[in-house]
Amino acid sequence: MSELLDPSEREELSKRFPEWDIDERRMTRTFEFDDFMEGVDFVNLLADVAEKAGHHPDIDIRYRRVTAVLTTHDAGGLTESDAEMAQRINHLAG
User: Fold this and answer.
1) Which spans are transmembrane here (predicted)?
2) Which of 19, 28, 53, 84 is deepest in the core (most CB within 10 A)?
3) pLDDT tens-digit series, residues 27-73
4) Going from the N-terminus, what domains does the chain have, and what CATH number goes with each?
């Protein structure tokens, strides 16, 4: 099982990923697109990356907005796996 990030590591995570909302249990970021289908295309790319990494975010689609929530469920909070996935998602978003 992955090690949970301690408070100082979560603070560092906030500096590395300022566009993400981070608390002790999860990282959340909302992306806005020009239309619904562009958001769906992004989700499909994200799903492929997540499947290959074996780390799956919770994803919510609301018209032009896609929200990704990262947490390591079996660890009960944030781990380095979430930071790695956030980096991959940021890369997808451009």
Assistant:
1) none
2) 28
3) 999 999 999 999 999 999 999 999 999 999 999 999 999 999 999 99
4) 7-93 (3.30.1360.20)
